[in-house]
Write a structure and sequence with these properties.
The chain has 10 helices and no strands. The chain has 265 residues and is an all-alpha fold.
Length: 265
């Protein structure tokens, strides 16, 4: 005890408290979105799996080859599933605080906890779908990933990037409804430059450097190296992506802290 009240919890205790809070919020979010039906929870994983599978199947049936002889279905799926994760995390950000504002009456619940729990749910769904596809490609097509650790790292960095953007959007939504109107449009417009459906070495030399300014391009290159290592050249800068992820998350947490000050509960 201190003169001003109870002592602040240690770093380890604070982490354990946050872990319990985020776990409870995860269960609440699952119940709110899917009710108590067990099969409803499966839709969280089936949606990215079905959409990714449909895109891969359509391009496979088209018969168009890819540079380097890459498996068509695998190429499109490992591009779409990470993009789906980014889109889901970012598109849900504008409603994250408004839809859960009442939870802030609980002293232990913070805006960051709310965003972490919602985003982890989307990330887990996409990781699950990607794992299922990787196993299917390996067992059915013999297309086992060459470096699975690169796929995991690329997906983790993609999630970190999307999470940081979501923090900033959620904080901005406290002050204006503009993000509700433009976020969905922005995620669709960003698809052509995201790197989801092209590789850097496909581009003319003068466009390659321009493409590498986009941080998600590096993540997609890393994921495709994990699946196709040695088949085609890849280009990415791990330090560049880590810098983006760190900057976005630090700015996002600072923005949430400021937004909580101005939020009327």
């Amino acid at each position: 005890m201190t003169a001003g009240g109870p002592a602040a919890p240690s770093l380890g205790e604070a982490f354990r408290i946050q872990r319990r809070v985020v776990g409870a919020l995860l269960l609440r979010e699952l119940g709110a979105r899917f009710g108590r039906e067990n099969l409803g929870y499966l839709w969280l994983f089936l949606e990215p799996a079905l959409l990714g599978g449909a895109i891969g199947t359509i391009h496979h049936l088209s018969g168009h080859g890819l540079p380097g002889g890459l498996n068509i279905a695998a190429f499109w799926v490992v591009g779409y599933v990470p993009y789906y994760m980014v889109r889901s995390v970012v598109n849900r950000a504008p409603s994250a605080i408004v839809g859960n504002q009442s939870l802030l009456y609980h002293r232990r619940v913070t805006l960051l906890d709310i965003l972490i729990s919602r985003n982890l749910l989307e990330g887990a769904a996409s990781f699950g779908a990607m794992t299922a596809f990787v196993l299917v490609f390996g067992v059915v097509l013999g297309e086992w990933p060459r470096e699975p650790g690169r796929i995991v790292l690329g997906m983790a960095l993609m999630f970190g990037f999307a999470h940081g953007v979501a923090l900033l959007i959620a904080a901005g939504s406290v002050y204006t409804h503009l993000f509700d109107r433009v976020t969905h449009l922005a995620t669709y417009l960003s698809l052509p430059i995201s790197g989801a459906f092209f590789m850097v070495f496909w581009l003319p030399t003068e466009l390659q450097q321009a493409a590498l300014w986009v941080p998600t391009v590096h993540c997609f290159e890393m994921i495709r190296e994990g699946q196709f290592a040695g088949q085609v050249p890849v280009t990415y800068d791990l330090g560049y992506v880590l810098g983006w992820v760190a900057a976005l998350n630090l700015l996002g947490m600072a923005a949430l802290r400021r937004a909580r000050h101005d939020l009327v509960v």
